[in-house]
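Lay summary. Proteins are chains of building blocks that fold into shapes, and those shapes determine what they do. In this project we predict the shape from the chain. Here is one chain we studied, written as its sequence of building blocks.
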Amino acid sequence: MRRERGATLVVALIFLVVMSLFAVSAYLFSTSHLRVVGNMQARSEGEAAAQVAIEQAISSPTFAQNPAQAASVPLVVNNGSASYTVRITPNPSCYRVRIVKNSELDPGNAADVSCVRSGTVQMPGLTQATQAQAGQLADNSLCADTEWDIRAEVSDGRSAAQVAVHQGAAIRMVEADAINFCQ
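And here is the predicted shape, written in a compact code that computers can read:
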């Protein structure tokens, strides 16, 4: 009996060590998951900030005339708990242009009316082609559909998160502006 008195103490100490290891590993596991979730949240907020900057750049009235100027100003997006600095870099690049045909336009749509080209009727928003141009321009409108590649870089000083977002955008603009910026 004397030898067995210390066995209970040893078994209790082993269980205490095992339970302590479980508690420490649970704590480490939860803090690492908390960091992962925090990083995912910072990334999602950065992507949202980049989308805001891209939307503001392409919605700018100056984008069609000078895309580099419309995208040149860094934007600070504040969501209440963090501020994200967004830069559109490099400048937006147009990689495709297609002249819109008059037959593709909807005369009932106010945005399409300003694109209609006519060789026979003089109305605001419409121009008259010369006879030499009439055959060549018979179905071309005054507008072109352009496709752009826009890249926004986001940095967050609080979490040191860095996110880059590429977005393609299709924009209808005046044919002359489209030809100037889409080489």
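What the prediction tells us: Strands lie at 75-78, 83-88, 93-101, 140-156, 162-174.
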